[in-house]
Amino acid sequence: MPAEARARSIAIIAVVVSILVAAIPFFINSRVSEGVPQLKLAADRQTAYTDLLGMLRDVESGQRGFALSGLDVFLEPYTAAVLEIPSLKRELMKGALDAQERDAIRQITELTDAKLANAADSIAARKNFGAAPDSLYASTALGKAQMDKLRGLIGKQITLMAERRDRARKTLIDGSAQVAYFSAFAGLFNALLLGTAAFNVRRLFRDRAHAADQLKEAIALAETRNAMMSGSARLLQALDSIRTLDDTSAVLTPCLTALLPNVSGTVYLYRDANDVLEPLASWGADAARSAIASEDCWALRFGRAHDHHVETDLCCHHLQGDPHRHHLCIPMVTQGAVLGLMSVKVDQLPDRNFALHRELVTVLAEQVSLALSNVRLREALREQSIIDPLTDLYNRRFLEESLKRELARSVRNRAPLSVIMFDVDHFKRLNDTFGHDAGDVVLKAVAAATKAAVRKADIVCRYGGEEMIVVLPDCAQGMAMERAEMIRRAIESVRIEHGGREIPQVTASFGVASHPNFGLDGDALVRAADAALYVAKRRGRNNVQMAA
Ligand SMILES: Nc1nc2c(ncn2[C@@H]2O[C@H](COP(=O)(O)OP(=O)(O)OP(=O)(O)O)[C@@H](O)[C@H]2O)c(=O)[nH]1
């Protein structure tokens, strides 16, 4: 039964028992008011019988005294008794308690009357005939016999009344004792009930307080979980908008700081090339910010999340300067390949909140891992669609897009822009002499040399075959001519070996065209550079020509 229902039942029983206890005085009163009159009645009747016997004794002694002495003084108690006896007899008969007593009183009355008649005769005879005639003795002897009988009858009634009185007294005493026992029992029972009720009520209050605490805790937990959920949704949304891995830190750092404010942590990115994990984003005061080797982390070795919070736990090598705190490392793995690692440090010992944080960190690691994998995939796809696979230079499609964009920017900023177009000289002959593979190797070497000779902001593209274009934003014609000359010299100085044979010096011819000299059209610019290149070919190759 629930504590609340139990407390209610006990309270009801306690009220009922209290009402019963309150009724006890009335019960006692009724027992007393019944018993006391019976006791008084028996006592009164006993007194009446005793009085009758006393009066009969007075009659007897008066009768004898007068018979022996003839003195009137003996007749005084006799006379008083004779006067009292009739009313006493009536009183006794009137108050007779049952048929048996009525019979006894009738016998006593008859015998009393006979005794009084005998006494009257005897007294009259003494008065009339003097002392001690034979009839007087005989009458006195009869009177004595009557008196003995009366003593017996009345004595019996006195005994009966005494017994009745004892019974009434006993009933009263027993009743009182019962009431006392009942009162004591009821009092004890009530105290027990009230104690139980108090205990239950206390437990009820305690249970309620406990339930309220639990509810408060559950609400706080739900709020934390909600905050975590919405924070993690925001992070996911932000991660989804990332285009390159370089942008990741700008998203991860503020989002993870907001989501895990009481911990410090680092998200590492695995670099396959040199088998190290480089910090991609870190948050919190104690975050690690240097690269770690993959074998320095137990989580990466085991391929699952690894906790370290007691000294007996295996401690990752990259955390060894800090062995007494709680650490959690979660590997970020997608499709069986390690992508990185999320490592967090917490000050407090693991508790209910920590469990929630652990759950969140695990979920976040999964989300970040998925997002990073998407970014990588996106980067790879994008590169595949804009990068020429042989030379690793941008392809013609990218050139068209970027030339249009860069030209628009130049117009907006009123800045110059130049295009260098070049073509490897006698490439067909090279292919024919050394083979197509050797031609590919030469194209790669030319591309690498060109990239090394230009600024990072310049866009180097393979325009088609052995033809290449360099777009130079913020570069006027004079500077572009110088840059083309640098590239020409760089290609000229490349030494290439293929198949154990040294390939003769490679050269290229260059045409340069610049904006704003050739309008706003990218195609016009490229056509002008091409025309200049054609001039360079005609002028003996391996030279740079400016568009007319
Ligand atoms: N190995 C290799 N050859 C290519 C590639 N693309 C184009 N070629 C070849 O490059 C040669 C270009 O020859 P041409 O256009 O006659 O020009 P050229 O021989 O360099 O002569 P000039 O430009 O006048 O000096 C052709 O034989 C193409 O087959 C490539 O990706 N690899």
UniProtKB/TrEMBL annotation:
Protein's recorded name: diguanylate cyclase
NCBIfam families linked: GGDEF (TIGR00254)
One cellular component (GO) term of this entry: plasma membrane
A Pfam short name: CHASE3
CDD domains to which the protein is assigned, alphabetical: GGDEF, HK9-like_sensor
First-tier enzyme category under EC: transferase
EC number: 2.7.7.65
TM region positions: 7-28, 179-201
Single annotated GO MF: diguanylate cyclase activity
Keyword Glycoprotein tagged: no
UniProt keyword annotations, A-Z: Membrane, Transmembrane, Transmembrane helix
Domain annotation GGDEF: ranges: 415-548
Protein's GO biological process: cell adhesion involved in single-species biofilm formation; negative regulation of bacterial-type flagellum-dependent cell motility
The keyword Transmembrane is assigned to this record: yes
Organism lineage: Bacteria, Pseudomonadati, Pseudomonadota, Betaproteobacteria, Burkholderiales
Domain of life: Bacteria
Catalytic activity of the protein: 2 GTP = 3',3'-c-di-GMP + 2 diphosphate
